[in-house]
Structures are given as structure tokens and as C-alpha cells.
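Customer ticket, subject: "Can you confirm the structure for Amino acid permease-associated region?"

Message body: Hello, I'm evaluating your service for our small team and ran a test protein. I'd like someone to confirm that this is what the system normally returns, since I don't have a reference to compare against.
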Amino acid sequence: MTSRPEEPTMSKPTDSHSPRAEVSETGLVKALGSWDALFVGFGAMIGFGWIVLTSGWLQSAGTLGAMLAFAAGGVIMIFVGLVYSELVAAMPFAGGEHNYLLRGMGPRAAVFGSWAITGGYISVVMFEAVAIPQTVEYIFPNLSQIYLWNFAGSDVYLTWALVGSAAALIIGLINIRGIKTASLVQTFVVSFLLIVGLLLIFGTAVGAEPSNAQPLFTGGVPGMIAVLVAVPFLFVGFDVIPQSAEEVKVPPRRIGALVVVSVLMAIVWYLLIIFTSSMAIPSSDLANYELVTADALAILLGHEIWGTIVIAGGLAGIITSWNAFLIGASRLMFSMARARMIPLWFGKLHPKYRTPSNAVIFISALAFIAPFLGSGMLGWIVDAGSPAIIIAYFMVSVVFLVLRKKEPRMDRPMRVGGRGNAGGTVIGVLSVILTALLLFIYIPVTPWSAQLGWPSWVMFGAWMLLGIYYLARLPGGIKPGENAEDQLIAAVKAKRGER
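Agent reply: Thanks for trying us out. I re-ran your input and got the following:
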């Protein structure tokens, strides 16, 4: 995959943000620096869950139980992040998983894994489109006007839904205008989130009541697993950095390091949220608060205005997560379309801004529709997206080991585990085992398995069946390797009678 053939829809730009803008071989503009890429990855992992789900975590597992569950999930993600860091440094191309699986396992595995993670990304985008009007309603209680219908047990109001749909339009337009514009928005909003984090630390220092953290453990192992199953959905996002690798203007080795740093930042963030919230509100009162993290800071600092600031931070988290996953999903669809795995329409670049505009439009359209299905969709979307994400993480972990064995001399600017092969092999094996165990949690065969509702399985199954359809249409006989994408494009063109 050293060469990147140009398609008619992928011509070199005639007008980008700067006449001196560096452009990748596929026409994407290299506009992201180190901080831009880091904030894209970190911001993707800090969505809205820390605002609304903290109470459930503390009630399910207790303060220390919830923190240990997140630490365990974070360790899993560190191993996965290390795997990704080596692969993105070796193959700094848009599409992340698409490139790694194509080179190590071949086209059919690449479609399956890439389609899975794309579905996971889109589920997050849809989740945020529903979450944003729900958050705004806490600030403007009379938001819900003009009743439309009841869906999934939730009443849907026109004014409520339009807030989410309007956000979908705005964020979609920002992403069409260019990766630099999107990253500037990301940097500004993540900076506000970090200020909220500092306020939580300050509030805990001046107003915490340590006895509120009791009990440290509740619910036993099932309680901790109930928290752990949320980890894939909440930590997904570091892998957005590899999706936009062709638009990052830093050395490949540094791109790999940014992946790991973003995971570490997210672990610290979630542990901070659990700890500060537990210090402010007694466990017996948690059920009385809908937005525990916001209420916690208001209690710690003695005024409701601080809770409002945290809610604003929740809105910021929605925007950063939404923006990052729209970047990631659109680049994956762009890469798959460029390789003729899915319709070429998704691979079209905007003639002026050099962004995969059709992919952005498609994903934004799904986000536009999501709020009209009501807030009851939130749980279904989370549960449908999480197993798809873990499938991709598992496959990437496997292909890491495959490439270590099949291509030991492949250029690896960032070689995890040291110069020899033993350290990297250990990291790869642990990543495979840990992601397999995490995936096993979603299979309903044990008393501790996640209990996903049938709507989630329907959404997950429908998306994966569509991916299998695209997989089945690919020509056979193409082996994994460095030139697999070029061979696939040639084979598809020959099969369709194209020149």
C-alpha cells in the first residue's frame, strides 16, 4: 500500500485553505499538528456519559469498585492503543483499520472489521445527536413543545428534536469545510473541558466529605462488570487519530505516541469524575440526582452556577465526541470507497475543501434523523455500537501479531515492546486475549454477561449484515500484502468492465 491510485473524484485540489497547504496522495489536506491530533483523540473519548452515567456506576460498583472497573478497562485500552500506535506509525494512511486488515488479512477481513468500527463510530454520532437536546433541556426546562409521537417509550417533541437536528447540520458543515476548521473547534471545546476538570479538582479540595465515598464496593463482580461493559463505548476514540493520519503533519512515530497519550488522558479523566462525584454526594442520595457530576460541583462549591458550568462541559463533551467520530467514520468510508469495497460515491472529495463530503453528508443525515426517534434510543445505540467496536479492536490486535510474523522487516517507526520481537508479541497477545474477553461479555451465556435488548441486537445485526453483503461482492483470489489495495481496485474494475 505504498502507492495510492487517483480516482476521477479524487483529483488534486485546486482550492484549499492555503495555497501552500500540503496534500496527501489521495487529495486530503495535511493540516493537523500534534496538539490538534491529540485533542481529536482525547475529545472523542470524553462525550456525555460522564455527566449522566456516573450515578449508575457508583450505585452498581461503589466508589472504588467503579474506579477499578474503569482502570481495568483502561488497561485493556492501553494495550489496544499500543497495538494501534505501531500500526499507524507503519501505515499513516486515512482509514486506520482498513489499511492494517487489508495488509495483514486481505480484503474480506478488511471490509468486515472496517465496517464494524464504522458502525460503532456512527452509533456514537447518533447518540450525541440525541444527547444534545436532552442536555439543553436541563438548562431550558420548557424546551419540549409541539408533541409529535411516542417512540420506544419516549415522547418526542418537535422543538426538542430540532435542537439535535440543527446541531447535526452545523457540525456536518464544519466538517465539510475542512479538517483544520473541525480541529480548531475541537481544540477550543476540549480546552473548556479541561477547565471544568480543574474546577472539579478544586471543588474536591475545598468541599469534599470523604465519608460520602462509602461504600467503596457494592454489587460484587456483577456490579463491576456492569460498569466495565460501558468502557468500550466510552473509551472508543483514540483510534480516530489513525483514521485521520493522512491529514496529520507530524512524523509517523509521533502519531503513534499520541494514540497512547490520549488513552492515558481519558483514563485520568474518568477516574477524576468518579472520585470527585463520590466525595460530594452520599451514596444513599445518588438516586435523587439525574446529573450527578454537575450536582456534585454545585454542592462542593456551594452554588448552582457551578452545576450549570459542568452541564456546559457536558455539551462541550458532546461536541468534541461528535466532531471526532464524524471525522473518523467519514475517513473510514472514504478509504473503503477508494478501495472499491463500498460504493465509490462515499469516496468523493469536496472540490474546494478536500474533505470526504459525501461520507460526511451520509453520517450527518443519520444524526439529523436520530433525535426524532426520542431519548429512548440512547441505551439501544450504546449497546448496538459497543460490540461492533470490540470486534474491530480484536481483529486489529490479531493482525498486529500476523504482521509481526509475516512481515518482520516492515518499516515500523514506532516499534512497541522494544527492538526484539518478544516484547511486542506479549503486548499483542495480551491485547488479543483482553479484547476477546471483553467481546465475550456481550455474548449472553453467563450470569455476568451484558443484557442487551433485542432492538440493540437488531441494529447491530442489520449493520453487520450490510457489511457482509459488501464483503460477499468482492472478487476473490486477492492475497494480503502491501499491494492488496491496488490489486483489489484492479480486480473490481475488471469485474465491472471499467477501464
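A couple of notes from the result: The beta strands are 22-23, 29-30, 147-151, 154-157. Confidence is low (pLDDT under 50) at residues 1-20. Feel free to reply with more questions.
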